[in-house]
Amino acid sequence: MYRVIECLTHEHNHWLVAVAALVCVIGSCLSVLISRRILGSGGRRQQVQLVLGSLIAGATIWSTHFIAMLAYDPGFEHGYEPVLTGLSLAVAVGGMLLSNATIAFVTGSFRWIIAGAGFGLTVSTMHYTGMSAYLLPGTLVWNPGTVLVSVLLGMTLGAAAYHRVLFPVTRYCWLGGSALMVLAICTMHFTGMTAFALEFSPLIEVPPQVLPDAVLGLMISAVTAVILVVGFAAISIEVNIEREALEQLEHTAHHDHLTGLPNRLELSRQMERFERAMKQKHDLHAAVMTIDLDLFKEINDLHGHAAGDAVLKEIALRLRSCCAEGEFVARTGGDEFVALKLGIRSAQEVEDFAQRLNRQITTPVELEFVSAALRASVGAATTLEHGRVAEDLLQKSDLAMYRAKMHADKLLCFYDPELDEQSRDRLQLISDLRQAASRGQFELVYQLQNDLISLAPVGFEVLIRWNHPEKGRISPAEFIPVAEETGLIREIGLWVLRTACMEAATWTKPFSVAVNVAPQQLVQPTFLEHLSDILIESRLPPERLELEVTEASIIEDQELTIDVMHKIKAMGVRIAMDDFGTGYSSLATLQAFPFDKIKIDQSFVQDVHTDHQRAAIVRSTLLLGDALKIPVLAEGVEQESELSFLRSENCTFVQGYYFGKPLSLQEVQKIVGPDDLEAAS
Questions:
Q1: What DSSP string runs through 532-558?
Q2: In order of start, what are the domains of the chain with their CATH numbers?
Q3: pLDDT 10s digits, 34-60
Q4: Does the pTM of the predicted model rise above 0.85?
């Protein structure tokens, strides 16, 4: 140990030693940083980092050695053999390439030992190769024990350095790894410098030096500095690229890709900030508003989704531009937005903010390929009245928005616990309805249709029932309007049609089965394809299926509907006009469309024998059907006197509670079984 200190303090140029130490520290820091980046990369990027890291680490080891050697003053002539000097540089770079490759490609918890020991061996091999290039007027005699100690020190400290690289405990562990790497290089070098003695020989001549040691040391330092600067620049560029990529990824994750507005994820983050701010300052208040664009669906339907996207971009730009400090607007999906306002003192400020946003929405959008005018429905909840939990406020504003949609004359509705509880129940109903079919909660029941002369059953009308697991049986009058409004009637109607055909196909006797078709189903582009697939799948003869449609199904687009109905009839399926008399163009409809049956609505059949107006309507309908050669079925027959009236007026078919309530599938099986018709009648 004393010999090492003496060597360092008495036999070296301290200025060059300082330069060597500076090169060693900077190079070691860069080497450790690049080694850590090698761990988290792959492919071509990892290959580049392997080469760059090995070049920097090898140059650091080599230049530290030779600058320190130039700082060493043996007291007589000396020089350096160029081939071995160059070989020592190659040894340093190649050895570091193997050590870094171990980090990149070797798996296992002990790879730090292999990589670190490889680093120490690289330093030692480079050192003693370089020392063999040291020209002196004599022969170097080595002390094997000291050589071994220098090698072991380099390997041990190198392994410790790589342990910090591979297993960091904190973000600053790279500093410890760099310090250990510097210590490994310097300890190995200065210990190795004490491992030899010189035996002078007059037979060995040292060629004169071209350049003094100090000049040569500065030249090596300059070249190494260039390499280190290149490495530092490469790391800086890569870090900046990564930072920009992460910032871009962060922005993409928290912003809507179409409009550029903050998305639902960013909204949650902002609401958490608002909530923290309100907890720190109890007299601070905020408002949450849910905004839905009315009439936006019409833009998509009329002009296409590209036009709808352009309108959304324009609206988003306007909303963002009108927000002041403490105000925030996000797009949460489709045509729905959420606005936050911090620092309110009264409900009037919330109304003013809503009006400001509404003006941006209602100002007509004039673009090159679309001109549109929108309205907004806004629901609001504030910490002044509705609590201070952000998520609760958002849910309450959403409920208030649905109430605003039901009152077109009101722009803004504040949350009202009593009124909005109805909206909550409705939303829950929609959610349950959406999953009812997949959960097996729907059931079909069958209402008899009878021949009026013989009173024998001729068919069944299919009716749907919903057996809710918590609420029990829910009336169709409650959930069918909701299904029609939300569009769920398409999926529900398809389920009814498929199930009815499957069940009817198993009946022994060929009774007809009548299925109601909602207006939204009839105009679906895929309806005819679904109908054909169901008939093929169930093997139900088409003539046994009857589809019941109302005037609401055909008045919106008569040209399309009449084309669809003719294609349905071409399949062999019959079509009945349901609820006749309740529309406003029944006669024209009968003339234009190919109906196979007319169904008189039950509202006209009830007490028809005592109500002269109803009797007149029923007689007119029966006469019209007779004139057009279309059979008529009267719905809702419950009394014998109603039945007698219809018989006297030559009605063809009847159905109603007079013949019993709708039947379950098991009850229907008793009627359609082998001994059915005579026994049942």
A1: HHHHHHHT--GGGEEEEE-GGGTSS-H
A2: 2-243 (no CATH), 264-415 (3.30.70.270), 438-680 (3.20.20.450)
A3: 887 787 777 777 888 888 888 888 888
A4: no
